[in-house]
């Protein structure tokens, strides 16, 4: 009996060296049938990781399995089943959308032309002008439409919603959810817009300086962490504080301690953005180093 | 669909998709910004290389343009081609062939334009001077070269330009140096060999006679064979290195 493949993507001990930036011994599994959100500061390595997975950047060592298969020897099959939206447009902007449809239909065996026409109209993209006349957001939307119509099982999106207006961003996330109605489909998308992750992600992966700092389901994360706001900080609070921030109103931090309470203490479940800000803040400015003074930068 | 037909279909698809790649947008911008330099470079190369019209450098020019074009495309990632479903072998062969075909297409266009230019200028000079300066020699070979020598060298110039453009777009400095050296060595070596073997050819076109005379003087010097042999070996090694770099770029890594 064929073993069921649970991971759409398995990355094992991946090492990438770009001279000024390195990824060392990175391990990551992308669960099949789920949406995984990838977040991190600028320069964390998200785009490098995506480009390495798409074979646009050479890795030094490690292993990447696509649905359990190695890339070597299965290039054609894998590239037919993986679609990617990069942070930059990769197709010729000298072409018109209807020309791109013809080209992609001939290259990708499962390309859905009818869906392409429907989505181009849905995003209000003019079909009879060259893509070079599109705005940045329109080019991004067209990139997404092309990727979605390729009939891929794994959709990788690098900042797909950046530069897109809120209405179409909502449309885009809705389309991702519709894409996921097929349980064989998987989405990995990197973004700075954490509201999108709050809305649709099943798993959250956080990257920092080429390393994975957090990799868990969104449910576990929301159950594990608490966002605390308080006016006074006790030593006990400071011990468990992650990404402690101080301003004129008091202190804010994230903690795994679920028993924090007291006067002037507010506890809630953090959003992905709040968690990201504090986890990243902990690396840059550890909680133990945050000063006692309540003076703000405005000298008040 | 049998395997051969499948390969033709894949190549056709690759050619169509290559409209989406090769840094198409940057190419247009570069050409439009540097149109004067482009024309001047074109003309200079045509004159400098007007030492022989053996055809060997034509073939090598096409091959060099081909693998440099392939190298160029391999270095542009991500692109629509780099993520399209082709095997590494297909990607390498198709990019080489499509680069040669694109080069031939532009060369053919330039050939037509050059012939028209030659005839037009002969007509203008005839109207001014009353003299027919378009000379056709007696023998078949010389007739061809005398009448179309300039256009023929323009063909080579297209490939040289294409090759140099490809070199300038390679992202790896080492690849650029090796490719550039191999191009120069190859063209110079075979030009010198053929000039010594085939003799000189005269361009019977008034405006360019001075340059042709200069070229003739250079190629009538008898060259000892040892330097030519050393240059030949060096150019062969340089080409081999450039081809090896191209192959490496298309090789799938083991990750």
Share of helix of chain A, binned: 25-40%
- CATH architecture label name of the largest domain in chain A: 3-Layer(aba) Sandwich
DSSP strand content of chain A: 25-35%
Largest interface: A-B, 36 and 25 residues
Q: What's the end-to-end separation of chain B, in Å?
A: 32 Å
Number of helical stretches of at least 4 residues of chain A: 10
Strand order of the largest sheet of chain A: 6-7-8-3-9-10
Largest sheet of chain B: none
Oligomer: heterodimer
Give me the count of strands of chain A: 14
Please explain how this structure is put together.
The complex is a heterodimer of chains A (300) and B (255). By secondary structure, chain A is of the alpha/beta class. Chain A has 2 domains: 7-220, Rossmann fold (3-Layer(aba) Sandwich); 225-298, no CATH class. Chain A has 10 helices and 14 strands. Chain A has helices at 46-53, 75-81, 97-107, 113-122, 136-148, 166-179, 194-200, 218-224, 235-240, 272-284; strands spanning 7-17, 22-31, 35-40, 61-66, 69-70, 82-85, 154-158, 186-190, 203-208, 211-217, 226-230, 242-247, 250-255, 265-268. In chain A, strands 6-7-8-3-9-10 form a 6-stranded mixed sheet, sandwiched between helices. In chain A, helix 3 packs antiparallel against helix 4. The longest helix of chain A is centred in the middle third of the chain and has 14 residues, at 166-179. Chain B has helices spanning 3-17, 24-33, 35-48, 56-75, 88-129, 140-169, 173-198, 209-220, 225-250. Chain B contains 9 helices and no strands. The longest helix of chain B is centred in the middle third of the chain and has 42 residues, at 88-129. With 255 residues, chain B is an all-alpha fold. The chains are: A alpha/beta (300), B mainly alpha (255). The interface between A and B is medium-sized, with 36 and 25 residues.
């Amino acid at each position: 009996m064929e073993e069921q493949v649970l991971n759409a993507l398995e990355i094992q001990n991946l090492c990438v060296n770009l001279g000024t930036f390195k990824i060392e011994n990175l391990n990551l599994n992308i669960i099949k049938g789920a949406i995984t959100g990838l977040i991190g500061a600028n320069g964390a390595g998200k785009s490098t990781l995506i480009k390495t997975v798409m074979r646009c950047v050479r890795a030094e060592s490690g292993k990447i399995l696509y649905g359990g298969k190695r890339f070597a020897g299965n290039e054609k099959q894998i590239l037919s089943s993986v679609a990617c939206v990069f942070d930059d447009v990769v197709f010729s902007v000298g072409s018109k959308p209807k020309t791109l449809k013809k080209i992609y239909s001939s290259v990708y065996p499962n390309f859905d032309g009818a869906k392409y026409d429907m989505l181009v109209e849905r995003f209000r993209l003019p079909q009879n002008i060259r893509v070079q006349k599109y705005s940045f957001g329109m080019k991004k939307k067209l990139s997404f439409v092309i990727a979605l119509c390729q009939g891929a099982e794994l959709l990788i999106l690098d900042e797909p919603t950046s530069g897109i207006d809120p209405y179409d961003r909502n449309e885009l996330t809705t389309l991702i959810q519709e894409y996921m109605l097929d349980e064989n489909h998987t989405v990995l998308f990197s973004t700075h817009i954490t509201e999108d992750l709050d809305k649709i992600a099943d798993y959250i992966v956080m990257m920092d300086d080429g390393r994975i700092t957090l990799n868990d389901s969104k449910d576990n994360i929301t159950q594990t962490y608490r966002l605390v706001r308080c006016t006074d900080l006790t030593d006990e609070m400071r011990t468990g504080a992650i990404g402690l921030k101080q301003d004129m109103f008091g202190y804010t931090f994230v903690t795994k301690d679920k028993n924090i309470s007291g006067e002037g203490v507010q506890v809630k479940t953090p959003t992905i953005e709040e968690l990201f800000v504090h986890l990243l803040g902990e690396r840059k400015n550890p909680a133990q180093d945050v000063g006692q003074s309540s003076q703000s930068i405005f000298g008040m | 669909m049998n395997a051969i037909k499948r390969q033709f279909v894949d190549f056709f698809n690759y050619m169509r998709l290559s409209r989406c790649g090769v840094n198409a947008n940057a190419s247009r911008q570069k050409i439009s910004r540097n149109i004067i330099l482009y024309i001047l470079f074109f003309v200079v190369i045509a004159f400098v290389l007007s030492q022989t019209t053996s055809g060997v450098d034509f073939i090598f020019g096409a091959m060099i343009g081909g693998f440099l074009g392939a190298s160029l495309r391999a270095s542009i990632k991500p692109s629509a081609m780099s993520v399209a479903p082709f095997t590494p072998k297909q990607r390498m062969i198709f990019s080489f062939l499509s680069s040669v075909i694109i080069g031939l297409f532009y060369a053919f266009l330039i050939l037509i334009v050059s012939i028209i230019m030659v005839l037009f200028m002969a007509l203008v000079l005839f109207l001014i001077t009353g003299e027919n300066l378009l000379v056709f020699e007696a023998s078949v070979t010389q007739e061809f070269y005398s009448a179309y020598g300039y256009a023929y060298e323009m063909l080579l110039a297209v490939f040289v330009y294409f090759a140099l453009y490809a070199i300038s777009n390679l992202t790896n400095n080492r690849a650029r140096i090796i490719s550039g050296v191999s191009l120069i060595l190859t063209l110079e070596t075979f030009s010198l060999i053929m000039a010594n073997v085939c003799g000189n050819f005269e361009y019977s076109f008034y405006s360019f006679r001075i340059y042709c005379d200069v070229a003739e003087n250079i190629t009538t010097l008898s060259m000892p064979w040892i330097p030519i042999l050393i240059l030949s070996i060096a150019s062969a090694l340089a080409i081999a290195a450039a081809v090896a770099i191209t192959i490496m770029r298309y090789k799938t890594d083991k990750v």
